[in-house]
Amino acid sequence: MAEPARLRRAPAAVASGVRTRLELGPLLFVTGTLLVILAGTMLVPMLADLAVGHPDWEVFLVSAALTAFIGAALVLANRGARFEALTTRQIFLLTTLVWTTLSAFSAIPLALCGLELSLADAVFEAVSGITTTGSTVITGLDTAPPGILLWRALLQWLGGIGIIVTAVAILPVLSVGGMQLFRSESSDRSEKVLPRSAQIASAIGWLYVSLTLACLLVYWSLGMSMFDAAAHAMTTVATGGYSTHDASIGYFASPEIEWAAVLFMAAGGIPFVLYLQVLRGRAGLLWRDVQVRWYLAVLVGASLLLAAWLVREHGTSPLEALRSAAFTATSIMTGTGYASTDYGQWGTFPIILLFFLKCVGGCTGSTTGGIKIFRFVVLYQVARIQMGRLVQPSGVFRMTFNGRPIAEDTAISVMAFFFLFALSFTLVAGLLAALGLDYITAMSASVTALANVGPGLGPIIGPAGHFGDLPEAAKWVLSLAMLLGRLELFTVLVLLTPLFWRS
Questions:
Q1: What is the pTM of this model?
Q2: Residue 400 forms beta bridges with which residues?
Q3: Residue 188 contacts by C-beta under 8 Å, 6 or more apart in sequence?
Q4: CB 335 within 8 A of CB 295
Q5: Does an H or E element contain 405, and which?
Q6: pLDDT tens digits along 430-456
Q7: How far apart are CA 200 and CA 454, in angstroms?
């Protein structure tokens, strides 16, 4: 796809050093519109609390009124803004502004509710929800009011569809971390079937809703209550992992529910644009996609390795071992974060393997977190070409992805992303260690936040623990890290460069 003229003009402006006015009106209008939608969503948990007579319904009513007032004010104040095609700088700023603003307003009900959360706790829980990370500071979920439980699930569900739209429609245009490759592989192909981006977003939205309803019905048929089924369906398809019980999926003690969760978690890790192709009779594209093949290969391979370990080292029966291994591997790799058992007690090898899966993540264009499979595919191609050139210096080698050539700037962008991920991981882990966290907790919390996974490792934030006991400052650091990871690093970090504001 040819770059839009507005993007081609940007380098000239930078080179000339000309300062151009950054028009904020359209950005504030869009942000205000989304705040009004968020306010409408708050009425759902309000009704849930009102139905059982819990006083927290007033909290959601006040939160919705405040959010709607500010959102409407932004819309009205900027309704006369010029809405030509947004510049690259505006899209960078809009993406970060939307995610941070929605996170902040999503924290209002959590800060005002009867759970008596601190401001740091409320923001952490909201950011973890909307980024579908799934880390939590809340205990006593089994006795928590239904409104809060439903609000947490709704946050992850809304965040899941937001992640897909961001990955499909926004980040590829910005060429963030090699995302321009995903644009040529998925968005272009979809636009030939559904020419307008609005149609693509609408089709993905209906697909997302349909998958959620299917998951709800499956959970309900397997013994969950309708409330539990609805909440878990939203957090499963969104690969978020918030549960209505402290024991997570393990509360239900049902192998059938765990296998159902494996199926829908794995489905959430596949690019949704490929599902559209399947529905249009092009099912072969799903299996021929190299990203999907790598994703399934890593997922199946890790599950088998963990199952073999459980059979050999713990004497677990093969079927039970396979179920526990598949559930845990899928939950961690997709960034869902559900737990059916304390895998921290499995031994050193499983911990190392799960730590690796946290980093890998699922496919781009899905609801998962992590570095993303497609970047590992590109990195493999770079390594393959480099080794080929060492053996045959005069040979001609070509990097490909799904049969298409990979541009040199795409490979550089992917390698830069790996460097920034490693650097961000080191800095966040270092900050957490400086705040008093032990080595395992600091390291796993850092990668958990940046990869948007959920539980960490160790006795404090592992599958049997929670993040509530961490220092307040550590929660703020992790909240920022979760947003940084969800926005693919570049989108936020580019705002810190003087060149961005000088263009």
A1: 0.89
A2: 405
A3: 1
A4: no
A5: strand 404-405
A6: 999 999 999 999 999 999 999 999 888
A7: 29
